[in-house]
Amino acid sequence: YEEFFSRYLVILTRRAIKWSKLLKGNNRIQKSLKVKRYIRKGIPNEHRALIWMIVSGAQANMEQNPGYYNKLLEGEKSDTLVEAIKTDMNRTFPDNVQFRKTANPCLQQTLYNVLVAYGHHNKTVGYCQGMNFIAGYLILITKNEEESFWLLDALIGRILPDYYSPAMMGLKTDQEVLGELVRKKVPAVAELMDRHGVMWTLIVSRWFICLFIDILPVETVLRIWDCIFYEGSKIIFRVALALIKQHQAFILEATNLPDICDKFKQITRGTFVTECHTFMQVSVSSLQCRTGKSYETK
Ligand SMILES: *[C@@H]1O[C@H](CO)[C@@H](O)[C@H](O)[C@H]1NC(C)=O
Ligand SMILES: *[C@@H]1O[C@H](CO)[C@@H](O)[C@H](O)[C@H]1NC(C)=O
Q: Where is the Rab-GAP TBC domain (predicted)?
């Protein structure tokens, strides 16, 4: 990992210089092909929160609704919602000291506020497991409660269609779609899944719900999120396909259901996923057809 990181630092430095030229100190950008290309190569840490805010539309919504977030927090609360959120508090990043009850500032309180506010903002969704990790990650990156709320709103309300609403129709659909993509792109793996009657949801629902948090290495997750905020949920498919394609031979060694599950766990570790820069290059081109035309416009 250290060897990778020393190489990655060089890339990060180069990208940081390019980004500061792009932003020219005024911290404003418009969506464009150039910005998209830049984002695919990674947003430097110091600009990450801002760029996520801008390209997801969260910044615009926050500016158009001053005081809205605080009003949600001051408003009346649903007891069931509050209970559900409280139950998950101690289970969210228990290994991260910043989320301990004794931490100062205590991110657990911030997380609680963001989730309670969101549950009252979007009553169709309310709260469901998985959102705690997404919101927690947003808080760690933005270090800002209100921005985390608006980014959560961008993700759940617009970018990820219906992943967290009670019926989870969007999530179910997207898992089916992934299954179909695998059938087209990596047919032998689809055939293996069929033969053993394995449902994709058993394997990939956490990939979709947690957006790879605690599944892939942190730096890789951030690079994936960079692209999700700009390009949307199609990035999840691209990453999943890249993972499966790369490890096709390894997955095909599986001879039974537990084996298949284990293989899919193992492919989320190791050099391929740690080398986040190369990994993202492979991922964003993972849906390319033979003609070189990509599905990018979809
Ligand atoms: C969470 O942990 C704290 C302290 O460790 C404890 O006081 C509290 O009761 C726990 N909450 C739940 C809902 O388990
Ligand atoms: C709530 O989330 C659902 C599902 O993602 C979305 O369709 C809806 O527009 C959201 N509503 C609000 C008020 O954000």
A: 42-232
